[in-house]
Every structure is written in structure tokens, then in C-alpha cells.
Specification:
heterodimer, A: alpha/beta, 4-stranded antiparallel β-sheet, 9 helices, 10 strands, B: mainly alpha, 11 helices
């Protein structure tokens, strides 16, 4: 499975973003500063906005002209999504739409305790949103700073969950630590274009540091 | 609840007690039995109008917030707030005359609907905009289409819907301008006060007006409580 972006040019209200080519096969983190165009790119890929030119391919098939509802992509927006349904009802509702079964996904992600709850914390809500997106059986996941509103322990939980997802992921962040922890490849967005894609050779090392520096544990030892 | 709004209500009540009641003592007569009949009839028409306005507000409020076509038509609907209502009545009159609806309950309903719809749409538009486009984008990415999308927004907005209904009801109940042109009968409360005033001066209707002001204050208080609930939710 692979997501490809070809010859993309987005121009809007004086903003310009150019990406010649990007291929997402495993976990690609799109790293860039605020206003670099990261979210704009994801909204284009989902079909919420148009580009001057460009093509989006999934497994070699052009999906650029499909409406968002029909694109085989999962999308986690930056803003926390709370639906007016209990966790179980939410999973059942989207399972029915996509003809899928939520139970294996919930089991694989270790979220069994979550679906029995009536209301969820911010971190749990984000986990549920990710689990829900997987019910669509997406060919790739687009994640727009899913940890932006989370505290450190919640961030850890979400990052660990994302790390265990096997679908190709294009993960947007401005946090280099998140990028180094998650990414197989880091795509750097600078000066309104993709300045380079780098293999993350530090992934294991950062993972170890991440394990060592559970900041809350560290605080307790001080 | 917002302290400023509570203060505004207290000041309105003081106005009610200090300024309007002396007017009643000087001029006032008890309202005629017909007044109760007219208030009941107006309340009934306002309720029916509100029952039409609420679903319309849900559809138009959603379209005006999230759909390009809807955004294009927004000024047309919201402009009715700025146009004198007698002018709306005049513009509406050819249709009402041609349909033989002049001075009927249907004409009252049409008039009330047209003036109160922008109020309901405005409330729902603000509510949907506050929920944000991200929810819609997420739902669309999850394959949700059509009215199902809207259902999620509606389910999140019970207090806004209640507020839209209350404010639309107030607007319909207090309508005079359009009804002066297209439906003076069956008599609604605005027409009643206007006609009685023209016939006999303030004495005959000051007590009725005072009761209406009191009713409005109570209903405004209710809407402020509802709005407070909206902010806290």
C-alpha cells in the first residue's frame, strides 16, 4: 500500500505550497513550522480543498477527482472530535457504514476498556477517533497533529498506538521529537515547498530515550 | 448566567415598574376581554409559525454555514431583518392576493414565518459555525453523507434549537408590519393594540401594552437562562 503525491501546487490567498513528489509507504512525518502548509496539504489530500495542479495516487490509482466520502483514506483532524454518541455506539455506527467489525480493531489497539465508558477524557477521545478511522479499512491514514491538545501521558499513549498501526500514515507535526519517535521517513516542509525527505535513522534511539524519560516517572524519582 | 444580562433584565423591570405603571394609573383601563382572545390567537399562530421555522432554520442554517450555494443566498434571507416589515408585506401582497389568502390564518402564518425565519437561521448558523467545519470534514472522511451529516450537528445543538425556537416565537408574536398589509384579520395582538390606539387613544390599550411588556420580560428572562445554558454547555 502506498500514497503518492505528484506535481502538486496549491495557491490560496497569497499562500503557495509546492510538492514535486512524495511517497508514503510506512510512517512519514511531515515536519514544518506553524503556517508551513501541513494542514492545507492534508485537506487537499482528503478532497476538502482544490489545488492548481497535482495528483494523488493510492496504490497507483488516481483518486484526485473522488469526493472526500469516497477516498480510501482515514483522516484525523487537528481539532478534537467528540460525536454525540457513546464510544460503543460510535464504533457500531461506523462499522455499519463500512461493513466492518470494530472488535478486532479495538482488541488490537488494546482499547476494550474504553468502549464500555459513557464519557471519555481528551486522550481517550483521540484514541477512539483513531480506532474509528480504522473501521473504514483505509489505504492510508492522514493525521493532523493528533497530539496537539494532549498532555504528556496522553501524548505517550496516542504515539504508542500510532506506532503500532500498520497502515501507511502521513503524520503532520511541528514537533521534531514526535517526528523522530514515529517516523520511518521525515518530510521537511520549508519555504513553502518540500525541501527533502530523510530516512529516520534515529528512530530506535529516540524510542529508547522516550522509554527512559517518562517525564512523570522521572519527576517522581527527583 | 451572564451578570450583564441579568443587570439588563433588572433595569428593564425597573422601567416596567417606575415608568410604565404610572402611565397605567393616569390613563389605564382594564384590557377588554377581547384582549385575552387576541393574545391566545397570536400565541397559537406564533407557535405554528415556530414549528415551521425550526426545521427550516436547521436546514438553512446548515447550508448557510457549510455550503457555497447556501452562503450565496445568505444575504437574501438575512436582509429581511433590515427591511421595514411593511415593505416586506407590500412585496408579499401580490402573492397573498393572488392566492386569495388576504386576512386569513395562512397569511398570518406566512407573514410570521418570513419575519421570524432569519432569527432562527441566525441562531442555528452561529451554533453550527461554533461546532466548526472540522466535524463535518471528519464525518465526510468517514463516508457520512447528506442529512446524516446534519444529524450530527443537530444532535449537538439542543439548546441552540430551543433558543432559535424561543426567539422565533417572540419575533412572530410581536409582528405588526407585514400583518398590517396582508392580514389584519383574524386579529393579532399587534393589530389589536394599533387599532384600539387609533380608535380611542392610549387609555384603552396602555394596560394591554403593559401586560405585553411584562410577558416579554418573562420570556426574555427564559431566553437568557437558555442562552446561559448554551454558553455553559
Amino acid at each position: 500500500m502506498a500514497l503518492e503525491i505528484h506535481d502538486l501546487l496549491i495557491v490560496r490567498d497569497g499562500f503557495r505550497l509546492e510538492i514535486e513528489y512524495l511517497r508514503v509507504e510506512r510512517k512519514t512525518v511531515l515536519l514544518g513550522r506553524n503556517g508551513a502548509g501541513k494542514s492545507t496539504l492534508l485537506k487537499y489530500l482528503m478532497g476538502f480543498s482544490k489545488a492548481v495542479r497535482g495528483r494523488t495516487l493510492i496504490d497507483g490509482v488516481n483518486i484526485s477527482n473522488l469526493p472526500p466520502e469516497e477516498r480510501p483514506l482515514g483522516y484525523i483532524p487537528q481539532r478534537l472530535i467528540r460525536l454525540p454518541l457513546s464510544p460503543l455506539r460510535q464504533l457500531e455506527f461506523f462499522s455499519r457504514i463500512h461493513g466492518s467489525d470494530y472488535r478486532p480493531i479495538v482488541a488490537k489497539l488494546g482499547l476494550q476498556s474504553l468502549i464500555e465508558k459513557r464519557s471519555l477524557s481528551i486522550g481517550e477521545t483521540q484514541l477512539l477517533t483513531i480506532a474509528t478511522a480504522l473501521l473504514k479499512n483505509p489505504r492510508a491514514l492522514l493525521m493532523d497533529e493528533p497530539c496537539a491538545n494532549l498532555d504528556w501521558p496522553n501524548k505517550r499513549t496516542v504515539l504508542e498506538l500510532v506506532n503500532n498501526i500498520e497502515v501507511p500514515i502521513l503524520y503532520v507535526t511541528h514537533d521534531p521529537f514526535e517526528a523522530l519517535y514515529l517516523a520511518d521517513e521525515i518530510a521537511l516542509l520549508e519555504d513553502k515547498r518540500l525541501s527533502g525527505v530523510y530516512k529516520n535513522t534515529a528512530k530506535n534511539k529516540v524510542g529508547e530515550i522516550y522509554e527512559q524519560y517518562d517525564l512523570y516517572q522521572l519527576l517522581k524519582r527527583m | 448566567m451572564d451578570k450583564v444580562l441579568v443587570a439588563a433584565l433588572v433595569i428593564s423591570s425597573i422601567y416596567f415598574l417606575v415608568l410604565a405603571i404610572p402611565g397605567f394609573i393616569v390613563y389605564g383601563q382594564a384590557p377588554s376581554p377581547r384582549f385575552v382572545e387576541v393574545v391566545t390567537s397570536t400565541a397559537l399562530h406564533s407557535t405554528l409559525s415556530t414549528l415551521l421555522v425550526v426545521p427550516t432554520s436547521l436546514i438553512l442554517g446548515y447550508a448557510f454555514t457549510f455550503r457555497k450555494v447556501g452562503k450565496f443566498f445568505t444575504p437574501l434571507v438575512l436582509a429581511t431583518i433590515a427591511v421595514p416589515h411593511t415593505a416586506i408585506g407590500v412585496l408579499l401582497s401580490p402573492i397573498i392576493f393572488n392566492l386569495n389568502l388576504t386576512d386569513t390564518s395562512a397569511a398570518i402564518l406566512i407573514g410570521m414565518f418570513i419575519v421570524s425565519c432569519p432569527v432562527g437561521v441566525g441562531v442555528m448558523r452561529a451554533s453550527f459555525a461554533a461546532q466548526g467545519v472540522e466535524l463535518e470534514q471528519y464525518l465526510r472522511s468517514m463516508g457520512v453523507k447528506g442529512f446524516r451529516l446534519q444529524w450530527f450537528y443537530v444532535k449537538e445543538s439542543p439548546i441552540s434549537i430551543l433558543l432559535a425556537a424561543l426567539l422565533s416565537w417572540f419575533r412572530a408574536f410581536s409582528e405588526l408590519g407585514v400583518l398590517l398589509i396582508v392580514a389584519q384579520r383574524p386579529q393579532t395582538v399587534g393589530i389589536y393594540v394599533f387599532e384600539e390606539f387609533l380608535k380611542t387613544g392610549p387609555a384603552a390599550v396602555i394596560s394591554a401594552s403593559l401586560i405585553l411588556l411584562g410577558m416579554a420580560l418573562i420570556l426574555t428572562f427564559v431566553s437568557v437562562v437558555v442562552e446561559g445554558g448554551l454558553r455553559d454547555s
